[in-house]
Amino acid sequence: MHDHKSLPDMLKTIDQEIMASFAYTGIHHLHRQVHAALSQVQRHQFIPKHLQKLAYENRALPILHQQSISQPFIVAIMTELLKLQHSDRVLEIGTGSGYQAAVLSHLVSEVYSIEINEELANEAKQRLALMAYNNVHIACRDGHEGWPEMAPFDHIILTAAAETIPRQLINQLKINGHIVAPLGTYNQWLVILNKLPEGQLAYKKILPVQFLPFI
Predict the structure, then answer these.
(1) CB of 32 within 8 A of CB of 26?
(2) Integer angstrom CA distances of residue 135 from 3, 11, 35, 72, 86
(3) 3-state secondary structure string, 108-151?
(4) Whole-structure pTM value
(5) Domains present along the chain, CATH in parentheses
(6) What is the pLDDT of residues 15-49, one digit of tens each?
(7) Which positions ≥6 away from 55 have C-beta within 8 Å?
(8) Rounded-to-10 torsion of CA 210, 112, 103, 122
(9) Buried b / exposed e across 65-88, counting CB within 10 Å, b at 16+?
């Protein structure tokens, strides 16, 4: 058992990666609250049993239906980029295992998460309910449509790569809100978009990334 990485090992690796990628991101270190949120979520509980020994490695891992749970460093940087406040309501597109939603739930008042695959949505819903993440709401629907009944959102996060940000999502974002998303098909970049008062988006490339496509 001794060679298995633990949660503190994972956090240390994330800190090293944050420092190493500073030239790209402009981020020296994670905010204390983001660090605390990452330390409060047991990543192994979001991973299939046979892969749990790899849970605290800094890498993406497969889950059901050809989907994956993101690399911890990427979860950390995407969470950091949102600049979250406690009162925020966040929309996540692509629940997957529910890990990113669990991290967000420690930082904001409400997380609304959409998953197109019914089995993944139901599993994540059960998993998060068992772990008493009561401020995470999961719906099985098409992420391109967003969640208009619950809009507007302070921020939006996409966990799958889109070629462009769907107009409905931009419409559901508050002015001055952020969208953090991987954009592109083969050459993907993690980008942050900021909704300006006139309604258009200012966007900034952060890091080259590799995500599964937005379906």
Answers:
(1) no
(2) 35, 24, 19, 22, 12
(3) CCEEEEEECCHHHHHHHHHHHHHCCCCCEEEEECCHHHCCHHHC
(4) 0.95
(5) 7-209 (3.40.50.150)
(6) 999 999 999 999 999 999 999 999 999 999 999 99
(7) 5, 43, 44, 47, 61
(8) -80
(9) eebbbbbbbbbbbbbbbbbbeeeb
Residues 161-169: contacts with CB under 8 Å, at least 24 apart: 161/185, 161/188, 161/209, 161/211, 161/212, 161/213, 161/214, 162/214, 165/193, 165/201, 168/144, 169/91, 169/93, 169/144
The tokens of 52 are what? 């749990």
Amino acid in the structure at residue 25:
T
Per-residue DSSP letter, 161: B
The per-type count for the chain, helices as H runs and strands as E runs, is 7, 9
Q: Which contiguous run of DSSP H or E holds residue 153?
A: strand 153-158
Reported as a single tens digit per residue, the pLDDT across 131-168 is: 999 999 999 999 999 999 999 999 999 999 999 999 99
The encoded tokens of residue 33 equal 């609250």
Active site residues: 70
CA–CA dist 91, 172 (Å, integer): 9
- DSSP, collapsed to helix, strand or coil, labels residue 94 as coil
